[in-house]
Design goal:
Layout (H helix, E strand, L loop, with lengths): L14 H14 L11 H12 L25 E12 L5 E11 L8 H11 L2 E2 L1 H16 L3 E10 H4 L10 E8 H4 L1 H10 L4
Parallel strand pairs: 1-3
Antiparallel strand pairs: 1-2, 2-4, 4-5
Helix pairs in contact: 1-2, 3-4
The structure holds zinc ion.
Zinc ion (ZN) binds next to loops.
């Protein structure tokens, strides 16, 4: 669905979207007509547009500009503990965590902030942590063709901490290793140490 921008510069929220959120408020046990909730459907709708802004573009575009002049650098590049937020596709509850992303360049590198952009591009969708981890790794593999990619994500799931078993402070860890990090145990050990997970 393409966004229409109103005169106030904000995204126009279709009536059916507002109605759906009103229905959810009523279902939750509150009155969508009361003063404090009057503008909530619009706010929620616009917030979700932002939470899911990753659908609007291919995260791989952030990796299209590369640098081949690396001054003989032939070691692992690591971006550690990048904070991110996503939403689980099962409950639409927040997933908050950090990701560490590494690759061993073959002949080109990207600006370091681009790795975080790839992460956010996939995180700003409805996700499961395992797929998010795999998608970030595969995107870097496909676009940079490095010798290897390693992605480790640790996150807390709102659907676990806020409902059901209510397990606070439990982090789920997922990892995806490709290329040399998958094939070679000592290289994998080295990258995990660089990520602070040795
Ligand atoms: Zn969930």
């Amino acid at each position: 669905m393409a966004d229409v921008i109103g005169e106030d510069g904000k995204v126009v929220v279709p009536t059916e979207v507002e109605d759906a959120i009103r229905t959810l408020i009523r279902w939750s046990g509150d009155e969508p007509e009361r003063e404090g909730l009057i503008d909530t459907p619009k706010r929620v709708a616009r917030a979700w547009r932002e939470y899911c802004s990753g659908y609007a573009s291919d995260p791989g575009v952030h990796l299209s500009r590369t640098f081949e002049e690396v001054g003989g650098y032939d070691s692992v590049v690591v971006l550690r503990d990048i904070p991110f937020q996503s939403h689980c596709e099962h409950h639409m509850a927040p997933i908050t965590g950090t990701a560490s992303i590494a690759y061993l360049p073959r002949d080109r590198v990207v600006g370091i902030s681009k790795l975080a952009r790839v992460l956010h591009g996939f995180a700003q969708r409805l996700q499961v942590q395992e797929r998010l981890t795999a998608e970030v790794a595969q995107c870097i593999q496909d676009n940079l063709n490095p010798r290897g990619v390693a992605v480790v994500i640790e996150a807390q799931h709102g659907c676990m901490t806020g409902r059901g078993v209510k397990t606070h402070g439990v982090g789920m860890v997922t990892s995806r290793m490709l290329g040399c990090f998958l094939d070679d145990a000592s290289t994998r050990k080295e990258v995990l140490a660089l990520m602070g997970r040795g």
